[in-house]
Amino acid sequence: MPSVFSLVIAGELPGRFVYRDDRVVAFLSIAPLTPGHTLVVPVSEVDDWTTLDPALWAHVTSVAALVGRAVRKAFDAPRAGLVIAGFEVPHAHVHVFPAWGLADFDFANVRHDPPAAELDAAQSRILAALE
User: Fold this and answer.
1) Cα–Cα distance, 54 to 119 (Å, whole number)
2) Minimal CB count within 10 Å: which of 5, 18, 51, 129?
3) How far apart are CA 13 and CA 29, in angstroms?
4) Phi, psi (rounded to 5 degrees) for 31
5) Where is the active site (predicted)?
């Protein structure tokens, strides 16, 4: 059975994409740590980031850095957080989000039902920052 991320990538579930190429996508998290929390995901369904092909892992981190610069700019944040957790969905991914302090890294603080308008606005801000 495909992962939920594979379903988002295939368009079978909705996603607010901010980046896409043939190997990696980036879309907003539906349970954000902070507004603008984005997931950078390889298109190929690999469970654990440590087993990704090194060239693909390098591309994932390159896209994560691009998105990190964009979320910092879009939300006027002093830092971009990067977390590799890997327990929520069995599909390798990295979390990139605007961060103002260490408390922003605490997954106990995710917002489980952010308003759709807030996610749409975050997507627009990140897309504008990427231009």
Assistant:
1) 32
2) 51
3) 13
4) -135, 70
5) 93 (tele-amp-histidine intermediate)
Active site residues: 93
Q: How far apart are alpha carbons 58 and 93 in whole angstroms?
A: 13
**Domain locations in the chain?**
4-130
Q: What's the CATH architecture for 4-130? A: 2-Layer Sandwich (3.30)
Query: If you search the block for the tokens 């349970």, which residue do you land on?
Result: 31
C-beta separation of 37 from 87 below 8 A? no
pLDDT per residue over 66-92, tens digit each? Answer: 999 999 999 999 999 999 988 889 999
Please provide the DSSP assignment of 7-64 as one string.
Answer: HHHTTSS---EEEE-SSEEEEE-SS-SSTT-EEEEESS--S-GGGS-HHHHHHHHHHH
